Amino acid sequence: MSSTNNAAIKMRKEYDFAKMKGRANPHAKALKKQITIRLGVDVIEYFKAQAKQTGIGYQNLINLYLTECAHSGKKPALQWTK
After folding, report:
1. Is-contact 58 44, C-beta < 8 A?
2. Which long-range contacts (CB under 8 A, 24 or more apart) does 61-66 make?
3. DSSP conformation letters of 13-73
4. What percent of the chain has pLDDT over 90?
5. Ranges under pLDDT 50 in the chain
6. What is the pTM of this model?
7. pLDDT at 78
8. How do the domains of the chain map onto residue ranges?
């Protein structure tokens, strides 16, 4: 038996999750809410490219960016034309 298998067996004896109920963090559901949003293909591709470079999922990157905007009070710079 390899050392990896020995470690897994030791861990299973040490940590018994058989009696665990539900999620590990009961508050995790309140941290994020699933929504449907339509984003431009170019925006999605940009974040997917960033995801490859950073190793962070593109949806998490979008969430991190929007969180930063919300916390800093950043406002969109829009100019409406008639």
Report:
1. yes
2. 63/32
3. HH---TT--S-S-TTHHHH---------HHHHHHHHHHHHHHSS-HHHHHHHHHHHHHHHT
4. 50
5. none
6. 0.60
7. 87
8. 28-72
